[in-house]
Amino acid sequence: MTILIPILGDQLSHDLASLQGVAKGDAVILLMEVADETTYVRHHKRKIALIFSAMRHFADELCAAGWSVEYVALDDPANTGSFSGEVARAIERHRPRAIRIVEPGEWRVRRMIDGWAERFGLPVEMLIDDRFVCGILEFQTWAQARSELVMEYFYREMRRKTGLLMTADGKPEGGQWNFDKDNRAPPKRGLNYPEPLHFAPDATTEAVMALVVERFAGHFGRLEKFALPVTAAQARSALAHFVATALPDFGTYQDAMVTGQDWLYHSWLSPALNLGLLTPLEVAQAAADAYAAGTVPLNAAEGFIRQVIGWREYVRGYYWLEMPDVASANALDATRPLPEFYWSGDTPMLCLAEAVRNTRDNAYAHHIQRLMVLGNFAMLAGVRPQEVADWFLVVYADAYEWVELPNVIGMSQHADGGRLATKPYAGGGAYIDRMSDHCAKCRYDVKKKVGPDACPFNALYWDFLARHEARFGRNRRMANMYATWNRMQPEVRDAYRASARMFLATLEPAADGWARGAG
Ligand code: FAD
Ligand code: DLZ
Ligand code: SF4
Question: What Gene3D superfamilies does the record point to (predicted)?
């Protein structure tokens, strides 16, 4: 009797824990394309193509390495459409003595797997996902010892733990943990933005793209010009290319936005990282090595490593600490439906139109587009956080609930009441104007405060602060903004609020069925 090893679509790593310490002749590996996973939210076409292509390549590589692999394709007539259904069928075929699986990334799937031992009458060994730097229990122990979660302190622990950018005597490289003061410059004219490495689809990817066109035509997003890495070897080339061409300027222009420039100096590595084609440690190590070799400045290497072993690990720990309640959190009582333009991109607000275009074309938008444009607008407008979260889960090639939900509910919508971040990431038009070239080309005037031609972010920002004064008025980090608000003449404040009301009344709610629904 053999061991059954199901490998989920975001567990595509050759050194996955479930493959360790097992004789190849004693195991059957199961990979499953299932309808439930493609439609529990109606993922972007590009995301489905990416996951299926990477799964198929990974299965081929495992076979070539001598493993016995069963691959259930989506269009297999016997496909039951769910993980549990496919595991049940594999048990019928192989009569295994046990199931061995790495803990899944999502709460929903974990609950499903928790039921397998009883359902199938077999031992189920669930292994820790050791591709992360910080284990789930380790994060819980760290969090329990604190009254407040602060990412910066967690990040320092991760630096100590990994030794990345640490001196021999245990001090942070360069004498500081954080070089943010050197980062976040506005974009300058005349900068050259490096193109990320593009990977032309091979026959496997083309077959998957044809399947996606046939089965998921009604899903959001463009599939044309698919260029993402779908194997570990391609992902490593993409990493090396990023380190050589974009990382040196990553820190400085981390928060910049430029019309028509979809990646700037960002890595575009999150899809490969979240599938398991790269590990966070190898990605962070590559940046540290480039710093040690003198090809990348410290502010860039540190800024990048902080995202990977700081933020990425922190949000994952937060997810498992706060689930399931955080999924329905709505601390700011936001009730507005998601505006239609999040799907159509049809808005005269150029910053938003650009972010939606990038999202539709590439299943990508960089962090500041997600946080300070798309997320910020939804929070200021009072959109129901669960609709915002569904949108973010659908549209990005890197979106899995463990990483998407904390970023949406916690970081961008402040719907968790400040558990993840002590202050809401709210900003008016001036912030977007400083960090981008959008406003100069926009139909709205960023300098105007109220009225039909004024940048809507301006009135929405003050209206948001006014609506939530009871909650944020005593927040020390927001004291300056409330002091400014309270210094304004009552008629000025009224004009802001009326302008916000008039703008909000023009928002068209999204049609049902884009994020969830049949097919
Ligand atoms: P880079 O800017 O090159 O950063 C390097 C790496 O750092 C990323 O690849 C990513 O792995 C990691 N990273 C950076 N910031 C974060 C963060 N806040 N949380 C987790 N990892 C981070 N990231 C996802 O991977 N999946 C998501 O579904 C997702 N949803 C988001 C939703 C919102 C509202 C916001 C504000 C952020 C979200 N992020 C998400 C985080 C971040 O925006 C993306 O990781 C990043 O834009 C991916 O592009 P990149 O690889 O070019 O990143
Ligand atoms: C996102 C996704 C999609 C679209 N399809 C599949 C699939 O058919 N088979 C699979 O194994 N995984 C898929 N995934 C990723 C899973 O949703 C992910 O592995 C779980 O949510 C656990 O994080
Ligand atoms: Fe966005 Fe306002 Fe600037 Fe237009 S003026 S691009 S809406 S911030």
Answer: 1.25.40.80, Deoxyribodipyrimidine photolyase-related, DNA Cyclobutane Dipyrimidine Photolyase, subunit A, domain 3, HUPs
Is residue 318 one of the residues assigned to a domain?
Answer: yes
pLDDT of residue 420: 95
User: Is residue 214, in this structure, part of any structural domain at all?
Assistant: no
Over the stretch 389-438, which tens digit does the pLDDT of each residue have? 999 999 999 999 999 999 999 999 999 999 999 899 999 999 999 999 99
CA atoms within 13 A on the CB side of 477: 8
Residue nearest to atom 36 of ligand 1 (CA): 371
Hey, what are 372's tokens?
């300070």
Mutate to test the pocket of ligand 3, among 438, 460, 506 (most ligand atoms within 8 A of CB): 438
For the chain, which residues score pLDDT lower than 70?
A: 518-519
- The parent domain of residue 272 ranges over 136-196+246-322
- 330 touches 385 (CB < 8 A): yes
Contact 439, 257 (CB under 8 A): no
Tokens of 233: 């070897």
Ligand 2 atom closest to Cα of residue 35: 8
Task: Mark whether 96 and 177 lie in a shared domain.
Answer: no
Angle CA 441–183–465, to nearest 5: 65
Phi then psi for residue 261, to 5 deg, are -105, 110
Nearest CA owner, ligand 3 atom 2: 455
Phi, psi of 305 (to 5 degrees): -60, -35
Q: Which CATH number is 468's domain given? A: 1.10.579.10
- Residue 184: the pLDDT is 81
> Is 184 exposed, middle or buried, given 0-12, 13-18 or 19+ CB atoms closer than 10 A?
middle
Q: What distance in Å separates the CA atoms of residue 411 and residue 501, rounded to the nearest whole number? A: 25
192 and 276 assigned to the same domain: yes
Q: Which CATH number does the domain housing residue 258 bear? A: 1.25.40.80
**Number of domains making up the chain:** 3
Task: Tell whether 260 and 380 lie within a shared domain.
Answer: no
- Ligand 3 atom 7: the closest Cα is on which residue? 349
Structural tokens at position 138: 């380790």
Domain harbouring 25, CATH code: 3.40.50.620
Task: Please report whether residue 385 resides in a domain.
Answer: yes
Task: For ligand 1, pick from 373, 390, 407 the residue to mutate: most ligand atoms within 8 Å of CB.
Answer: 407
Q: How far is CA 212 from CA 37, 184, 296, 357, in A?
A: 14, 38, 40, 20
Residues 257 and 287 in one domain: yes
Does residue 361 sit in helix, strand or coil? helix
Q: Which ligand is nearest to the CA of 196?
A: 1
Q: How far apart are CA 444 and CA 345, in angstroms?
A: 16
Question: What pLDDT was estimated at residue 369?
Answer: 98
Q: Is 404 in the pocket of ligand 2 (CB under 6 A)?
A: no
Cis peptide before 77 (omega within 30 of 0): no
The answer to whether the CB of 8 is under 6 A from ligand 2 is: yes
Residue 401 backbone phi and psi in degrees, to 5: -60, -35
Note the pLDDT of residue 143.
96
pLDDT at 189: 77
